[in-house]
Amino acid sequence: MARLLLIVAFVVGTFVVALPSTSEAQDLSAAEQQYVGRTLTLFEMTIASFERVNDLTADPRMLESDWQGDFIGETAVWKAIYQESVEIHAPVRFKEANDKAVEAYKYLNDAAREMRQAVETTDPVAIARVAETLSPSSDAMEEAARLLAEAGEGNGGA
To answer: What is the pTM of this model?
Structure first.
């Protein structure tokens, strides 16, 4: 669980740093602004979900159905975020960042299935193992945030 908390803290910090400023957003076309808005919404949803998971893992009550339901609900959020991410069509300027973000969300989607099973079977070892598999997602999210910031500054493509 400690590893999951570290990953959550890292991802939250990474996304907060990557949010473009108002002046940067004004330099984007309407399509680019729409894309960035949708992408930042997914980032914010991910952050909020990870914060809720952080709260849940701070006080694990694996044998209580409300705790299990809340945790499983967060895995459903991860799956929904992934589904939304694959439907976004990125402007050329943001394609590389988008591809990396979709990769990160794919890791979350895959982890969601395993995490749900671990929670349903109340297996703390499996939960810890699945939490370890979130590291590639964290790495991909960090890279996506960096690429998004670079593209938003005009250094990433078009």
So the answer is: 0.78
